[in-house]
């Protein structure tokens, strides 16, 4: 009885194992197409090439600054005894900004005035001496001609007269020099009062009353304050060397400030630097950027509107002090510079465009996937793979501009083709011309797209 039961168990286990093997083999056979399905092919993703508007954009970051800003430093050194302004004040051209202690400069004026008086007195004396020497010379000359006096006496009189004339001329020069010293002393005294060179807003105040400042006659001098015209604002942004070649003067731009996340401003490129600004020079992280200046066209500080989108309008006179400025110096912002637009362009997803080595394709490597280190001459070309039924066809293409999603195809496609977009490993390496595929087409989104290139 026990033997019969054991035999039944062995048969049950054997049957179960056979069933498991058949299931695994059946699944594998289905995947390999053994049961009438044929070769299933590589599973890929696809999307239809469509005509759309592509706008190429260069994105950069920078800080707001006034177009016109004057750094004010004293011409003379001294202690600040009066400071009638504070940061944020609106000033008019000619307003008093600060006054320095003037005692020493006033004393210098008095000394210079005394010097002028002394020089004038000396000049008067030299004039009298010159007149007397002239009379003596004329008298001695007449007597010498009558042979009444010796030649030696005549020469002495002549020499004395010439010396008197020279001393008179020197006295005149000393008077002019003393007057110049007086003028300089008066100017130095006037420079102890510092006035606003233009109308604007006091955007920076670096000193306090009682502080001693150094004039610009001694090195760089002390920066006391800055006066800015907030009605004319701009941003200076760093654009990478690979992108700056696409940027041109008067390109339109959109500006977004971190301080105003729900608001954007119109701008235009006004200046592109010719000299690079290199960061981390000499290291592996070296970055080469070029400063680009973007003018804010619809500056809310003045209510100025941009007018024509691509034009650079001259701003109206800023209404300084009308209200607190919306854009303040130093605010950080992101700028999208619109460099080029292609309308009704045949476009495919960026990931659909890949590179194949046509030299390998000609030599028998069907995939032509780019590889490194084989030492063979390369013939790299841009291609896309078009899904035709259940197979892939490789098409060489020429590309134009791109945004963050789509790339313009200028030659090779007419539009309407189904291009393979993924997976990445398939597009970049695995796909071969004529390879069997299974597509999962994605619905493309037509319309305008914007690039975000950094």
Automatic annotation (TrEMBL):
Keyword Coiled coil: yes
Residue ranges occupied by any Multidrug resistance protein MdtA-like alpha-helical hairpin domain in the UniProt entry: 117-183
One annotated GO molecular function: efflux transmembrane transporter activity
Key words of the record: Coiled coil
GO cellular component terms listed in the entry, alphabetical order: efflux pump complex
Domain Multidrug resistance protein MdtA-like barrel-sandwich hybrid: 70-219
Annotated YknX-like beta-barrel domain residues: 235-300
Domain of life of the native organism: Bacteria
UniProt keyword Oxidoreductase, yes or no: no
Residues in coiled coil: 151-195
SUPFAM superfamilies on file: HlyD-like secretion proteins (SSF111369)
Protein family: Belongs to the membrane fusion protein (MFP) (TC 8.A.1) family.
Protein name in UniProt: HlyD family secretion protein
